[in-house]
Amino acid sequence: MKPFEYKLTFKDFNASLRKNKLLALTCGSCGKHTCPPKLVCHECGSTDLESTALSGKGKIVTFTVSYVTALGREGEAPVLITMVELEEGPWILGNLVGIDPDRATMEALMGKPVRLARARMLPPDQYSGGKELKGGFARPTFSLD
Ligand SMILES: [Zn+2]
Questions:
Q1: How do residues 7-43 score in pLDDT, each as one tens digit?
Q2: Is there a domain that residue 90 lies in?
Q3: Percent residues over pLDDT 70 in the chain
Q4: How far apart (Å, rounded) are the C-alpha atoms in residues 17 and 121?
């Protein structure tokens, strides 16, 4: 039996985010994109996947402001967390920067176009196993376009 081959590992996804490049998996069966990377196509479950660079452009479909952060990241609060529908289809969670979280309103943000910004870096912590990623995790980060 052929061993499973990862077409896009989280480590490579993370490294590309650090260079402001958003990678996804494109499905050879249905043509849809899966982002962040998973073992199978998010749409049809196929393992016929290839790594692809996405535009990093999309629109805000929802957001929230968090005043509570993970242990050791208290200095981040408040943080604007957004769900972005990418131009290519996938929805991805990330941070929204360039907006005062205390001034974030539905009218100001819902449906607004965004683009990938310089990734926020998160130091490795006791929960994420991030010690394997030198320099920590790159969190998808967006700004208004
Ligand atoms: Zn598919």
A1: 999 889 989 999 999 999 999 999 999 999 999 999 9
A2: yes
A3: 90
A4: 10
Distance 114 CA to ligand 1 centre (A): 26
Task: Compute the distance from residue 91 Cα to the ligand 1 centre, in Å.
Answer: 15
Q: Is residue 3 part of a domain?
A: no
Cα 41 to ligand 1 centroid, rounded to whole Å = 5
Domain around 31: 10-144
Q: What percent of the chain has pLDDT over 90?
A: 68
CB-based contact 40:8 (threshold 8 Å): no
Calculate the CA dihedral of residues 83, 11, 129, 123 and round it to 10 degrees.
Answer: -70
Q: How far is CA 53 from the centre of its chain?
A: 13
Ligand 1 centroid to residue 87 C-alpha, Å: 17
Q: Is the pLDDT of residue 71 over 90?
A: no
CA 48 to ligand 1 centroid distance, Å: 8
Q: Specify if 1 maps to a domain.
A: no
pTM: 0.88
Domain count, the chain: 1
